[in-house]
Amino acid sequence: MANLKSRKSFREIIRIIGINPYVSVPAAVSRSFSIRGNIPVRAKIDGHFFPATLVPVGGGRHRLYLHGGMRKKAKAEVGDRVAVDLTYDPRSRMPPIPKALAKFLKTTEYKKAWNGLTPSRRKEILRYLGFLKSEISLKRNVEKVLCFLRKEGAWFKYKIP
Prior knowledge:
Blueprint: E1 7-13, E2 15-17, E3 20-25, H1 27-32, E4 39-45, E5 48-58, E6 61-65, H2 68-74, E7 81-88, H3 99-105, H4 108-116, H5 119-131, H6 135-150
Antiparallel strand pairs: 1-7, 2-3, 3-6, 4-5, 4-7, 5-6
């Protein structure tokens, strides 16, 4: 069980792997959460708060990846040393399920297939559907997701979304 009252602070240089800026989380901080795998946190970087996830890198250590919006708000770039405060945050990061999809997920066939997807795949699909602007686009893309869940048709050949 995570140490819910744990608030850990450290200072670290922002580094980059490929195109992904990150800060290395000290091993003692990783261990303090008492969780293996991804750790949902509320990160405070140079005074600015963000929902984030610590990603395991092996040996009981984690990284905190910093996307452009986080770095821009904190006015920090690769090579800068930043102050990081982490607090365990158990709130779900899953986007809401659109009503157009939710009605289908009540059926046994689709519910079983949906629950068989990895959480990251479900999140990816829900994010995609959440960005659609028109009802027509949403309906069309929900149908693509349903074909994907049924593992049929041309849509199954492609990764959705």
